């Protein structure tokens, strides 16, 4: 991995952001529920019932803590997940840049059909422009995943998977094949460079 790489919790594009937001929401809810139950447990352990005080209603606590609270939490998480999935499933808008990435044992072939340029283990994309990735494989199943930009997608030998990503700021990240694909799977990496449209155009020109 590249030294400046910081993973899916440091999103650099809209799709990675919706994944990170969902993660933080789940962490927040999980923490709140944990703290609530730790406090209730402490109260149950250390608080003595006062003289003549009626025991708590078991039914109310079981229904509240075992049914109502989980239903509320799960509905919120479900709604947030559906919203994030809709963002991730959106088609690329017209004008998106098409980049074809083909997995090989053990390297990434990256083609820019518009420009007629092909590179290996190096992927450049212009900042602020949606990119429609066409992912496939020349041999076994590989996995394409740039955590800073969005979700993971399989690269299959018998078809093309489409993944739309966009970088909102310049950066350089390492991406690693995300599906075990043989002995040298661990060395199958691609350097991802997001740069200004001018720098991108100059880079494409230099590759011709
Ligand atoms: Cu692989």
Automatic annotation (TrEMBL):
One of the GO BP terms on file: ATP synthesis coupled electron transport
Record's bilayer topology term: Multi-pass membrane protein
Database matches in CDD domains: CuRO_CcO_Caa3_II
InterPro entries: CcO_II, CcO_II-like_C, Copper_CuA, Cupredoxin, CuRO_CcO_Caa3_II, Cyt_c_oxidase_su2, Cyt_c_oxidase_su2_TM_sf
Catalytic activity, reaction form: 4 Fe(II)-[cytochrome c] + O2 + 8 H(+)(in) = 4 Fe(III)-[cytochrome c] + 2 H2O + 4 H(+)(out)
Gene3D superfamilies: 1.10.287.90, Cupredoxins - blue copper proteins
One Gene Ontology cellular component: membrane
UniProt GO MF annotations: copper ion binding; cytochrome-c oxidase activity; oxidoreductase activity
Domain Cytochrome oxidase subunit II copper A binding per the UniProt entry, residue ranges: 94-206
UniProt KW keywords: Copper, Electron transport, Membrane, Metal-binding, Respiratory chain, Translocase, Transmembrane, Transmembrane helix, Transport
Top-rank EC class of the record's enzyme: translocase
Family matches, as PANTHER family: CYTOCHROME C OXIDASE SUBUNIT 2 (PTHR22888:SF9), CYTOCHROME C OXIDASE, SUBUNIT II (PTHR22888)
Protein name from the UniProt record: cytochrome-c oxidase
Subcellular location per the Swiss-Prot or TrEMBL entry: Membrane
Protein task: Subunits I and II form the functional core of the enzyme complex. Electrons originating in cytochrome c are transferred via heme a and Cu(A) to the binuclear center formed by heme a3 and Cu(B).
């Amino acid at each position: 991995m590249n030294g400046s790489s910081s993973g899916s919790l440091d999103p650099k594009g809209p799709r990675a952001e919706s994944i990170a937001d969902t993660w933080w929401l789940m962490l927040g809810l999980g923490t709140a529920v944990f703290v609530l139950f730790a406090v209730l447990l402490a109260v149950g352990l250390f608080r003595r019932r006062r003289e003549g005080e009626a025991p708590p209603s078991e039914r109310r606590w079981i229904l509240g803590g075992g049914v109502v609270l989980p239903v509320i939490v799960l509905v919120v998480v479900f709604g947030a997940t559906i919203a994030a999935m809709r963002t991730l499933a959106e088609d690329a808008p017209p004008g998106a840049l098409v980049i074809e990435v083909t997995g090989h044992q053990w390297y990434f072939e990256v083609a820019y059909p518009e420009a007629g340029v092909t590179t290996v283990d190096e992927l450049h994309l212009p900042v602020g422009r949606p990119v429609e990735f066409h992912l496939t494989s020349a041999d076994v199943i590989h996995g394409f995943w740039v955590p800073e930009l969005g979700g993971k997608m399989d690269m299959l030998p018998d078809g093309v998977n489409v993944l739309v990503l966009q970088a909102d700021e310049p950066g350089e990240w390492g991406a690693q094949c995300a599906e075990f694909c043989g002995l040298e799977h661990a060395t199958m990496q691609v350097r991802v460079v997001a740069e200004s449209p001018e720098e991108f155009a100059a880079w494409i020109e230099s590759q011709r």
